[in-house]
Protein: DUF4974 domain-containing protein
Amino acid sequence: MKISKHKYSNYTLADFLQDESFIDWVLNDKPVSNPWFDRLNNDESIVRHALQAETLIRKIKPLKPVFDDSRVERLKLRIDESIDKKESSLDSRQLSSKSYNYYYGVSVAACIAFIIILTFFLLPGNLSNGNFESQTITWVKKSTKDGQRLTLFLTDGSKIKLNSRSEIQYQQSFNENEVRLIKLKGEAFFEVAEDSTRPFRVYAGSTITEALGTSFNIKSEVNQTGISLVTGKVKVSDLQTSKRNEILIPGNKLLVISDSWKSISEFDFDEEIAWKDEVLVFKNADSQEVFSRLSKWFGVKFNLSEYDNQITWNYTGKFKNQTLKSVLTSIGYSEKFEFKIDDKEIIIKPMENK
Structure:
């Protein structure tokens, strides 16, 4: 079924459940190369109905037909009645002469019909009076500024630690058999509650990271995304093509730079993950890296007009729950600089010889 932009923008739940291309996309694990992926990303007005339809579709799996022509015809009629469409009958003689592929398609539609009819009778109303479609999806958006870190608990039991200068979006609640969708800009550590029926997917940069029950870190910056796995197993896919994906095991990190997938490597836990426990770690860092990260961590700005920023640094250190003054005192002693704290501005200058 070819869909014009106008028609698909007005799709209802019933339209999704009748659309063979949408059903096929869902049953084939929603490849990002399929047009439906872009449609749903570019039109938030139909996401609610699409997720409701996906929940119903995932409750069944298409089987080979095991019933006669008359039962197929009755099921087809019940589909039409449940969505208030004009009744139409199937010519059983034509049906019996169709190929196996057509017969298989009818069996899929019949299974979905059972779900629609079950919903029709269990809810305090039916599809036509709008009670089902009145269920809205509430999206929650959280962000942090420099110097801020945030811990979030999702309704499925998952825990997210959001780093400074980051933004995350997630559904306020997750329905049964519904994919758990997350959008991330910046950095976050995820501890995902195990649920085999509801995949947990994080969209960050040009990647999709999918997990069932695991813990991992994602850092998504301009043109660069890094995924580091701590426990469990995740699959990382490319937003542009479903043919490119990697499976990570604990201790592995995948780095994607400007859509170029680098090789998987092991990572240092302290460097990648310690931030979530309020631990600030530097390893062989130059002055630019140190001041940049301190600015983000504490929410301050550094004035280096009196300091020669070309001085070679190779600083290594670890700080847990320490104040800015304490951190600067320690680094300054090692790297020979003095500082003055003026509210949110930190003035750095060379240490005077005494």
Q: What stands out?
A: The domain at 139-271 is CATH 2.60.120.1440 (Jelly Rolls). The chain is about 30% helix and 30% strand. The chain has a mean pLDDT of 78. The longest helix spans residues 100-122.
